[in-house]
Write a structure and sequence with these properties.
The chain is globular and about 50 Å long. The chain has 286 residues and is an alpha/beta fold. Helix content is 28%, strand content 29%.
Amino acid sequence: MTAKRRRAGGREVVSQVVGGGLAQLVPDPDRRDAWELLIDGAAQSHVDLADPTWLEFEYQRRLGHIVDLVAPPGRPVTVLHLGGGALTMARYVAVTRPRSEQQVAEPDTELTALVRRELPLPRGCRIRTRTADARALLAKLADGWAELVITDVFAEARTPAHCTSAEFLDEVRRVLAPGGWYAANLTDGPPLAHLRGQSATALSRFRHVCLAAEPGVFRGRRFGNGILLAADRELPADELTRRYAGDPRPARLLSDRALADFTAGAAVVTDATALPSPSPPTSVFR
C-alpha cells in the first residue's frame, strides 16, 4: 500500500493502511525531528530521531527507568521486545547501550516497513525485527537468551488474550537468562480486574513483582497504563519508587504487601480463562 502525504505545520503527515489499520506518522510540533505513530487514531509510539533517548509517553519513560536499572549505561544488554510499533524502546536501548543485541516481534510487516522507511533506525544498531506473533517468537528462542523481555503488545488497542496467561509467562521465564527481568505495558480502567489478574499471574510465576501506575488509575478514577515488572531476584523497588515519583506525571509503585493486598482474590489467568485487556473508552483518544 502506497503511503499518502499531506502538509501539517510545515511538515508532512504520512498515512498508510497497514495490517492493523490506518497508520499515521504525525510530526511533533514541539520537536523538529520527532514523530508520533497513530493506528486508527490511537497514539501508539513517539520517536525523536535526533534524540532517541527522549521518551515522550509516560509509559515509555517508566520502561526507560527499568532499562536503566537492568544494566548501567554503555553496557550491552540482550533484549526481546514483544510488540514493535515505532521501535521506540529498541532505539533507546541501542543508543544508551551500544552493541546490545535486540530482537523484536512484530507481525505487521507493512507497519514495520513504514516505520523503517520513514523513521530510520540509529546507525550501527543491532535490532532484528522478526515478522512473528509475540508468543510464536518466544517459542523459537533459546533458553536464557534475554536479560530483559518487554511486552507491549496491542491489537485494536487491547492486549491479546494469549499474551496474558500463566503459560505465556512460562515461555517468558524460559527465555530469560538467570536473574533476567520481565516488564509489561498494561492498560486498564475501573474496576482494574485486568491489572489485578495480571499481577496475580505474575506473582504465581516470579518471586518478585511490582506494579506502577498513576494514582488516579489505582484509585479507579480513569483508564490508564500500568507497568508490571517481575524477576526471580530482588527488584530495586525503592529506586524505582524514587524515579517514578520524580517523573512529570508521577506514578505510584506497589510491591510486597501492598501488591498482595491489591491482587487479593484475583485468579491466576490461564490459556483457558484468558481474555484480551479491556477496550479503552473513546475519550482516551479525543
